[in-house]
């Protein structure tokens, strides 16, 4: 156990460096979004800005639409650590054009990732299963648990945006003609449960999933190659639309995921803003961190503590030597 929670409060760093940094940074509100990767980033940002740059950092609850709207209209909060900008592109673009918002660095350097996946152990036995042609050829190797006479494709839960995209691609790939049944897992837990059960038993599984997620951090999966590359325009105009009548096969384009700040924060705290430009995770890094969170039933705060202690090789690349020294002093006082 640590002597006390890192993020609950630490001994003040040297008066000179703390005072100087606080003058240029001041109070900073950080949106603590209601999903694990965003909450982890928010807590990491709070720690680094508070103890590395002397900011008076505070977490406030957030979600994609209300946070982006509040930032654009009210200038609060100062930072949204993980903004999936496709969902609010028009609002973000308008805020940037009006000089109210600034897009800093990529939160996820790979972008959000979606696709159809199969377990790696299946591909190890038959490399053709890494392609959609191989999956279709061996459709009978993916029997439904409820009706072995049909093959199972696990789609996205009802009501999610990915239900539309997965359904349209299921149609475009002619998977029904190949013998597959599109199965609605009912919920995120149902989808992850179907995958984890199959993986633990080394059974067949084929379906939609996305990253970064704990599941893809715990289980080695292979994204099935459709052999088409990405047609972003068709994806946006047809695959992502419920009214798409003639869907064509395309891989999922990566979803841009950025750190968004207010223009005021960028202006008044340029050094702290520079940190938000550099702070980024690969999907592999975030998958592993999310898997750790799930295995340890950790919230964003506790996961951030673990990250700061055990992944200096990652976070030290985001800050200057002086800031790194400040952070190390804070860690030494735990």
Automatic annotation (TrEMBL):
Gene3D superfamilies: Glycine betaine-binding periplasmic protein, domain 2, Periplasmic binding protein-like II. It comes from the Bacteria. Keywords: Signal. SUPFAM superfamilies: Periplasmic binding protein-like II. Residues 1-20 form the signal peptide. InterPro entries: ABC_Gly_betaine_transp_sub-bd. Transmembrane segments: none annotated. Residues 27-308 form the ABC-type glycine betaine transport system substrate-binding domain. This is ABC transporter substrate-binding protein. It comes from Marinomonas pontica. The lineage of its organism: Bacteria, Pseudomonadati, Pseudomonadota, Gammaproteobacteria, Oceanospirillales.
């Amino acid at each position: 156990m640590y002597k006390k929670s890192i993020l609950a409060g630490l001994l003040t760093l040297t008066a000179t460096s703390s005072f100087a940094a606080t003058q240029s940074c001041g109070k900073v509100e950080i949106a603590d979004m209601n999903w694990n990767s965003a909450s982890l980033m928010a807590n990491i940002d709070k720690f680094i800005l508070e103890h590395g740059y002397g900011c008076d950092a505070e977490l406030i609850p957030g979600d994609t639409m209300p946070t982006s709207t509040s930032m654009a209209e009210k200038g609060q909060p100062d930072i949204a650590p993980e903004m999936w900008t496709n969902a609010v592109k028009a609002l973000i673009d308008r805020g940037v054009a009006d000089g109210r918002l600034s897009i800093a660095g990529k939160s996820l350097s790979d972008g959000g990732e979606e696709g159809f996946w199969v377990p790696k152990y299946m591909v190890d036995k038959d490399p053709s299963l890494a392609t959609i042609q191989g999956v279709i050829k061996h459709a009978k190797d993916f029997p439904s648990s409820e009706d072995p006479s049909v093959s199972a494709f696990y789609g996205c839960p009802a009501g999610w945006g990915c239900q539309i995209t997965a359904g349209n691609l299921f149609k475009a790939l002619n998977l029904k003609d190949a013998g597959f049944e599109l199965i609605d897992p009912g919920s995120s837990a149902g989808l992850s449960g179907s995958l984890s059960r199959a993986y633990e038993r080394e059974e067949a599984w084929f379906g939609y999933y996305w990253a970064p997620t704990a599941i893809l951090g715990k289980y080695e999966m292979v994204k099935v190659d459709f052999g088409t590359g990405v047609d972003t325009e068709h994806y946006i105009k047809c695959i992502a639309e419920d009214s798409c009548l003639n869907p064509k096969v395309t891989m999922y384009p990566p979803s841009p995921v950025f750190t968004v700040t207010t223009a005021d924060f960028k202006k008044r705290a340029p050094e702290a803003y520079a940190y938000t430009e550099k702070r980024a995770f690969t999907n592999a890094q975030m998958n592993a961190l999310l898997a750790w969170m799930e295995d340890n039933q950790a919230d964003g705060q506790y996961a951030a503590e673990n990250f700061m202690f055990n992944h200096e090789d990652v976070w030290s690349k985001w800050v200057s030597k002086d800031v790194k020294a400040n952070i190390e002093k804070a860690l030494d006082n735990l």
